[in-house]
Specification:
The chain has about 230 residues and is α/β, with parallel strands linked by helices. It contains six helices and five strands; from the N terminus they run βαβαβαβαβαα. A five-stranded parallel β-sheet has the order 2-1-3-4-5, with helices on both faces. α1 (about 15-30) crosses α5. It starts with a strand and ends in an 18-residue tail after the last helix.
Length: about 230
């Protein structure tokens, strides 16, 4: 059993990494193996939004050939995912946002890339924006059918300053421990087979042959890409 920790900060050794390492320590003490990756070290291009990853016979395959392909394999071989990001302009970092967009392809993979796994969030700001980021992640967890125990909010500005925020340090450790225990105990959301590996909006498009929006012609199977 394995936990993948994803650092969305472009800053190596920064506050986000410090809290993720606390979470890693908590998960490892439960007995799970962990891997921490830094998105800033990967060349990940933005999603093109054409849902080519839904093409029949190619579900879960992203047509963009970059470093994200390596991360897809990591997602598929873990049972829990811990996300960490600082707040930039009241939002997550661009590195994390691009990753989330591209990770959706993994939702349609079998065995699961992200569907039904345990997820956790650690977010750090100087003062404001933590809740904005958490709101987006909560929708992400719902859409990808992931189970999450909670989120950790840290407050720091200068590099290393997060160590003074004792509450977030302890909370990150407990978050890692909790996610690991949930994985170990087999806790997960499991939708009926008909709905697993599906977005409800695109599922309805396919089942009833209706557009995603009134007057639209959205093709959820990615038929517009060879």
């Amino acid at each position: 059993m394995k936990i993948l920790l994803i650092n969305g900060s472009p800053r190596v050794g920064g506050n986000t990494e410090i809290l993720l390492n606390e979470a890693k320590r908590g998960a490892e003490e439960v007995g799970l193996s962990c891997e921490l990756i830094h998105l800033g070290k990967f060349d990940i291009k933005p999603c093109t939004g054409d849902f080519a990853c839904l093409r029949p016979g190619h579900e879960g395959e992203c047509h963009i050939k970059d470093d994200m392909q390596e991360i897809y394999d990591k997602l598929q071989t873990c049972e829990g995912i811990l996300f960490g990001t600082p707040v930039y302009l009241w939002d997550m970092t661009s590195q994390m946002l691009i990753f989330l967009h591209r990770s959706i392809a993994a939702m349609f993979r079998k065995p699961p890339g992200i569907v039904g796994k345990v997820g956790g969030l650690i977010v750090i700001s100087g003062r404001r924006g933590n809740q904005n980021v958490a709101n987006v992640f909560n929708m992400y967890f719902i859409a990808t059918q992931m189970m999450t125990p909670d989120a950790v909010y840290g407050y720091a500005q200068s590099k290393g300053e997060i160590r003074k925020d004792i509450h977030s340090m302890k909370s990150s450790y407990e978050m890692g421990r909790c996610v690991a225990l949930m994985v170990k105990e087999g806790r997960k959301i499991e939708l009926p087979d008909e709905y697993r590996y599906k977005f409800l909006p695109t599922f309805v498009c396919e089942k009833y042959d209706v557009p995603l929006s009134p007057g639209g012609d959205f093709k959820p199977k990615g038929a517009d890409r060879a």
